[in-house]
From TrEMBL:
Organism encoding this protein: Xenoophorus captivus
InterPro entries assigned to the protein according to its UniProt record, in alphabetical order: ConA-like_dom_sf, Laminin_G, TSPN-like_N
Keyword Signal: yes
Keyword Cell wall biogenesis/degradation: no
Lineage per the UniProt record: Eukaryota, Metazoa, Chordata, Craniata, Vertebrata
Name of this protein: Thrombospondin-like N-terminal domain-containing protein
UniProt keywords, alphabetically: Repeat, Signal
Gene3D superfamilies: 2.60.120.200
Length: 221
């Protein structure tokens, strides 16, 4: 299980137009401003391997109706290996080998929390929204062949005409070698919302900020 938000939280700051909050259940939430770009080397989170089969679990909240990229995984030569795009009317899955799948979905840009999960196996792709299966498609070519020597990017744009993501993320998790986990998003894999869920940030200043947020929330309960 790879918790991408946990790693991203280490670089969040008001300087890059993003910040961390802690919700009532002590869930870590990253607010991504429209002109914020958060990046991670893929090797930092996936080491030397990315599985051909996996589940991708996302919880997000946004009022942004224009099509935008929630996150992107780029190769060293800036090719898209995996990208999830959302608009007021669709969810778009883009992968290697020119795979581009657009699923009609409405209601995701209403300012409420929504769960989006993908089950990726060597034979098919399945989309779940708010824990209901919406669509399944068969692969033409087996395996996405995603490497780990590139970059993961949340927010930002690749082309000048694009609209950058603006909203909040409560979960961005990969479960490698487990394509069935997406089906159990609500029952088995909600975001972890306790102190034990977070690794201490490497920055002392960031550590103090997170501890202050948790302490402040506890005083309000």
């Amino acid at each position: 299980e790879v918790n991408v938000l946990q790693e991203l939280s280490l670089q969040v700051s008001e300087r890059n137009n993003s910040f961390v909050t802690v919700e009532g259940s002590r869930c870590l939430v990253i607010r991504v401003g429209q002109y914020s770009t958060l990046t991670l080397p893929l090797q930092q989170i996936f080491s030397d391997r990315f599985a051909d089969e996996f589940s991708l679990l996302v919880q997000l909240r946004s009022l942004q109706r224009e099509e935008h990229s929630v996150f992107t995984m780029l190769s060293p030569d800036s090719r898209i290996m995996l990208q999830i795009r959302i608009s007021a009317y669709a969810i778009i899955f883009i992968g290697t080998q020119l795979r581009h799948y657009e699923f009609p979905v409405s209601g995701l840009c209403d300012g409420e929390w929504h769960r989006v999960a993908f089950s990726v196996s060597t034979t098919h792709l399945v989309l779940y929204v708010d824990c209901l299966q919406l669509e399944i498609v068969d692969w033409v070519n087996h395996g996405l062949e995603i490497g780990t020597d590139g970059l993961l990017m949340v927010g930002g744009i690749l082309e000048g005409f694009e609209t950058p993501f603006e909203g909040e993320l409560r979960q961005l998790t990969f479960l490698l070698d487990d394509p069935e986990a997406a089906q159990q998003h609500c029952s088995h894999y909600p975001p972890r919302c306790s102190n034990a869920a977070y690794k201490p940030p490497r920055s002392p200043r960031q550590t103090l900020r997170l501890l202050e947020l948790v302490h402040r929330q506890e005083n309000l309960l």
